[in-house]
Design goal:
By secondary structure, this protein is mainly beta. The strands form two sheets. Strands 1, 2, 3, 6, 7 and 8 form a six-stranded antiparallel sheet that branches. Strands 4-5 form a two-stranded antiparallel ribbon. The longest helix is centred in the last third of the chain and has 7 residues. The two termini are about 25 Å apart.
Amino acid sequence: MLEAGGRLLYGNGMVLRPYIALGGVFCDDDSWGAEASFEGAPNSGSFRSETELPEQVARLRLGFDFLASEQVQVKLEYGGELNGDYRAHSGTVRATTCSGQRDGPVESPLEKVLNG
């Protein structure tokens, strides 16, 4: 994946980090399958379940990390895999808070971004 992004610093100490990533997946095998059977069912035999998959898929991620303060962070991300009729979508929402006293000189995520 190739990723590009930026960092916007606001006067009140907030940081917004937008990003986009593009890439691809290339496979030799265009199917996935599994052999299965029912436990406790005598003479039922086994069966195979199989599904077709695309050999090439474009991957896309875009989102942002928002550092509201040293204690509050929010991440939003969309992920997509695309090829012809094949579509797979995902999303991430994550909020993180920190509280309490720090032991020692540990930098917060906001300090790490601001200090480079």
